[in-house]
From TrEMBL:
Keywords: ATP-binding, Hydrolase, Membrane, Nucleotide-binding, Transmembrane, Transmembrane helix. The chain crosses the membrane at residues 519-538. Belongs to the GDA1/CD39 NTPase family. The keyword ATP-binding applies. It comes from the Eukaryota. ATP binds at residues 182-186. Residues 609-633, 670-710 are annotated as: Disordered. The active site is at 145 (proton acceptor). GO terms for cellular component: Golgi apparatus; membrane. This is Golgi apyrase.
Length: 710
């Protein structure tokens, strides 16, 4: 194991999948290099801008063709990760694919098939560490995504390692987290002490481990709103227009589109004369705000007060100590258009809303001219420009009317040309982002992504706990003492009862030097060659080889002692000359039938011996015959006078040299017809109970199959 440890997280979102590669020092190395202060901090996670790669569309778009998700989607991301992680560290590098809201909208069968195909493809095409598919390849719930984001944000802000520098008052030093994607939105924050005590059962208990093995715990409230992401909210907005206007019209006036823009109901731009139902922009942003407000569902019944959106319970937010940082759409919608054309990058309600109105009131022709001139930057194309008015109205409604973020700048700004928070933002880093809300993309040059929270939790779990102490594992779950039933472990090796899953390919298990189950390759190769040759050499050659080996291990015995079996005699059925005997019991008779041996020249040997005292079925020991190496069965009949007789069912190669029963009596006949009256006796009226054996026309023992029980 080298100095550095690596981890790969694939963020499978609704619109695309993003691969993130992270690196941190091995704990033993980190302890040696750390000073007293650093020992009390979490592992230091490092990443670079070119270590992230995103491709479109998302994994969920392969729901109807899961077999293609590997080659058509994952291959590029997997190669990206393999290009970054050193070759000698790949097999020690864990990989995770965590799917979010896009996959949550699929049914269970579609999810399962996609996840299985994903895990199989990664295992077959890389040596990344993937010991358990259920843990490493999964659809995570919104609360888990939100908690990972909260971890990442506070880690980058430094509030975990230096709480004294982030004192917000009332003993509070962490930041709230807001995230919005295409399909869902999340919120995570640590309530103040009063709310935390009042809603203790609603909180998640998070446990992390510092480099020195010490533990830090945090109690966080997290919730998620599915279909509250910008794409799903837009779908609900269009449905609301259809319900309000009716479904029998061809054009729907849309106040959230710039005037003159015409699109399909799915948002694709159409030329003015295209047929079919369409949305026609009116550029009335105030109306857009009013209609999108209704999508917050603020009037939904609240079973557990207080609630924010859609009737979902949320502890009261104390904005004196809870300062929120928003990422994803909160950043893209507020900055990629409305700030790129301005020197200042601040967000405040009045400035932002003024700029949105200015942009959305333009005609679509004017906006297209601005796109060609890169007026808003090279990232802004016609698709982004056509969507931004609705997105902006939705962000404003969610932040201020939904979550309740104070409208900073509303009182002290007068127009779009004035930056109400320029001074505030310029000192944001020094102040610790103490505004109620601040949208960010990076903190200290590192992109804020919930995937960072996931890998930090994993790296923290790899820190060994102090030997002399009994400490609880790293992870998160319900806010109760001990380890709750819903506790989430970040790695397989922490599970109380690890699942036996293949952590490496079979050839690595057999040949890699550090594997305890390793088999030297040369011995395995020789064994396979010998085994293949053994089965290909044919039965006769196997028998000859068997006899030679058997004679080597056979010890001489006294002539009167019973013969000993050879080294392998009776243990390998494909080598032994004797075949097992079988018995069959008739349902309606008291006669005993036993398959024994017969002579080899077409005649039968009948043993007249003492009959068994009961009617139980017995199996006679097969008798060794001539060199044909087989034994043909006989039928043994119990007679009325207490004697018994046997009828051979086959013909062997030569006469039996000593066919004698226990009483020393021998009965030999030349045909089965002569034997039948004697064997069957008067009870059968001279009729034979079984047809005679067919005459052998060649010198090969017939193949006898066992008789099934009647």
């Amino acid at each position: 194991m080298g100095k550095w440890r690596y981890g790969v997280v694939l963020d499978a979102g609704s619109s695309g999948t993003r691969a993130h590669v992270y690196r941190w020092l091995d704990n033993a190395v980190a302890r040696k290099e750390a000073d007293a202060t650093s020992l009390k901090s979490l592992p230091q996670i490092v990443t670079k801008s070119d270590w992230t790669k995103k491709i479109h569309p998302g994994v969920s778009t392969f729901a109807d063709k899961p077999e293609q998700v590997g080659q058509d989607h994952l291959a590029e991301l997997l190669q990206h990760a393999l290009d970054i992680v050193p070759k000698n560290a790949v097999d020690e590098t864990p990989i995770f694919l965590l799917a979010t809201a896009g996959m949550r909208l699929l049914n269970d069968v579609q999810q399962s098939l996609l996840l299985e195909q994903t895990c199989s493809y990664i295992r077959a095409n890389s040596d990344f560490q993937l010991p358990d598919c259920d843990l490493h390849i999964q659809v995570i719930p919104g609360v888990t995504e939100g908690l990972y984001g909260w971890i990442a944000t506070n880690y980058l802000m430094g509030s975990f390692d230096m709480p004294g520098k982030h004192d917000h008052g009332k003993g509070h030093h962490t930041y709230g987290f807001l995230d919005m994607g295409g399909a869902s939105a999340q919120i995570a924050f640590a309530p103040n002490a009063t709310e935390a005590e009042k809603h203790a059962n609603d909180l998640k208990l998070l446990r992390l481990r510092n480099i020195d093995g010490s533990v830090q715990e945090h109690k966080v409230f997290v919730t998620s709103w599915l279909e509250f992401g910008v794409r799903e909210a837009r779908k609900r907005f269009v449905k609301a227009l259809e319900l309000a206007i009716g479904t029998d019209v061809m054009e729907y006036p849309d106040p959230c589109l710039p005037a003159g823009l015409r699109t399909t109901l799915n948002g694709k731009v159409l030329p003015p004369s295209s047929p079919g139902p369409s949305l026609v922009g009116t550029g009335r942003f105030d109306e857009c705000l009013g209609i999108s407000y209704t999508l917050l569902d603020k009037d939904a019944p609240c079973a557990d007060e207080p609630c924010l959106l859609h009737g979902m319970h949320t502890p009261a937010i104390d904005f004196d100590v809870n300062h929120f940082i928003g990422i994803s759409e909160y950043w893209h919608t507020t900055h990629e258009i409305f700030e790129m054309g301005h020197k200042d990058k601040a967000y405040d309600f009045n400035t932002y809303q003024s700029r949105v109105k200015e942009f959305c009131s333009q005609s679509w022709d004017a906006i297209e001219d601005g796109i060609e001139q890169h007026k808003w930057g090279k990232k802004v194309d016609w698709e982004a420009a056509s969507e931004v008015c609705f997105k902006a109205s939705w962000i404003i409604n969610v932040l201020h009317d939904g979550i309740g973020i104070p409208r900073v700048g509303l009182e002290n700004t007068t127009g779009s040309g004035h930056n109400g928070t320029k001074e505030v933002l310029s000192h944001a880093g020094e102040k610790g982002y103490l505004d109620a809300f601040q949208a960010v993309n990076k903190i200290d040059s590192t992109e804020v992504s919930w995937t960072l929270g996931k890998i930090l939790l994993y790296a923290s779990s790899q820190v060994p706990a102090p030997v002399a102490e009994e400490v609880l594992p790293v992870g998160f779950g319900s806010n109760v003492d001990g380890i709750p039933s819903d506790f989430q472990y970040p790695s397989v090796d922490l599970l109380p009862h690890p699942i036996e899953t293949p952590s490496e390919h079979w050839h690595d298990t057999l040949f890699r030097g550090e594997s305890p189950r390793r088999i030297p390759g040369i011995f395995l190769f020789v064994f396979i060659v010998v085994l293949a040759g053994f089965f290909l050499c044919g039965r006769n050659r196997r028998l000859r080889a068997y006899h030679k080996v058997n004679r080597l291990f056979r010890r001489p015995t006294h002539p009167t002692y019973p013969k000993r079996r050879g080294f392998l005699g009776g243990k390998l059925p494909f080598l032994s000359r004797n075949t097992p005997s079988y018995e069959r019991v008739l349902e309606d008779g008291s006669h005993d039938f036993e398959l024994g041996s017969a002579d080899s020249d077409g005649s039968e040997i009948v043993e007249a011996g003492r009959a068994s005292e009961d009617d139980s079925v017995s199996i006679s020991q097969p008798k060794r015959t001539s060199s044909w190496g087989s034994t043909t069965p006989t039928l043994k009949f119990g007679l009325e006078n207490g004697s018994s007789a046997s009828i051979g069912l086959g013909i062997s190669a030569g006469p039996v040299s000593n066919a004698m029963d226990r009483a020393g009596l021998v009965v030999r006949t030349e045909s089965r017809d002569h034997l039948a009256p004697i064997a069957l006796g008067p009870t059968t009226n001279g009729r034979r109970s079984r047809a005679g054996s067919p005459t052998r026309s060649h010198h090969k023992s017939p193949i006898m199959t066992p008789l099934a029980d009647d």
